[in-house]
């Protein structure tokens, strides 16, 4: 179990209180990730802003889920994979996409597979992509804007995945049914 405090509006640093109120209003609860991040108000605020920016990117819900879950699975995030499983279901993402991402099996179409491949290349190569990776992404119908939006999504996921690893953030009750461990 984590040694990090799971803050609420009464225990959080003053600058985090309105951020937690926003989490409560947006999610109907304070996700454990936000409760941990509240210890550092700048981290929570940055995470919330990056989340908002990525949600408003040019990607559709299936594509957002591919970017988020590809990174979550690659980084073996015990918290984010179940949380984003629930989020994807709420966004109307087809179960075939959700399960392929969780299990690292083929996605139902080439475009989504190209997005996963590109996202993995960004993560694994730390952004040092060769022309072939970029060209494959463009050939699948993606744009330069979307190259940079993958980087935006990765920035968001670094904040959450790394926080969860360090703090051993407990998975919220609504997402526990989507518990996940990486396949061997």
Describe the structure.
This protein has helices spanning 17-27, 32-37, 41-55, 61-74, 80-90, 95-103, 110-124, 131-139, 144-167. It has 184 residues and is an all-alpha fold. It has a domain at 59-178: Up-down Bundle (AhpD-like), CATH 1.20.1290. Helix 3 runs antiparallel to helix 9 (144-167) and helix 7 (110-124) packs antiparallel against helix 8 (131-139). The longest helix has 24 residues, at 144-167.
CATH domain class name of the domain at 59-178: Mainly Alpha
What's the alpha carbon Rg, rounded to whole Å? Answer: 16 Å
Our count of helices gives 9
| Mean pLDDT level | 96
CATH hierarchy: architecture of the domain at 59-178 = Up-down Bundle
Features of this protein?
mainly alpha; 62% helix; 0% strand; 9 helices; AhpD-like; globular; 184 residues
Give the gist of this structure:
This protein has a domain of 120 residues: AhpD-like (Up-down Bundle). The chain is 62% helix and 0% strand.
Q: What secondary-structure arrangement, pairings included, does this model have?
A:
Blueprint: H1 17-27, H2 32-37, H3 41-55, H4 61-74, H5 80-90, H6 95-103, H7 110-124, H8 131-139, H9 144-167
Helix pairs in contact: 3-9, 4-5, 4-6, 4-7, 4-9, 7-8
């Amino acid at each position: 179990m984590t040694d990090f405090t799971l803050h609420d509006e009464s225990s959080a640093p003053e600058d985090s209180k309105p951020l937690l109120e926003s989490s409560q209003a947006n999610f109907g609860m304070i996700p454990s990730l936000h409760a941990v991040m509240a210890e550092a108000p700048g981290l929570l605020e940055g995470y919330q802003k990056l989340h908002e920016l990525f949600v408003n990117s040019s990607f559709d819900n299936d594509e957002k889920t591919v970017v988020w879950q590809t990174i979550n699975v690659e980084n073996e995030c015990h918290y984010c994979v179940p949380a984003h499983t629930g989020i994807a279901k709420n966004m109307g993402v087809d179960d075939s996409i959700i399960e392929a991402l969780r299990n690292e099996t083929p996605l139902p179409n080439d475009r989504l597979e190209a997005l996963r491949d590109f996202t993995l290349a960004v993560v694994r190569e730390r952004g040092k992509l060769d022309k072939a990776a970029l060209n494959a992404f463009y050939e699948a119908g993606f744009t330069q804007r979307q190259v940079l939006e993958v980087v935006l999504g990765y920035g968001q996921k670094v904040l959450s995945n790394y926080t969860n690893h360090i703090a051993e953030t407990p998975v919220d009750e609504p997402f526990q049914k989507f518990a996940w461990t990486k396949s061997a």
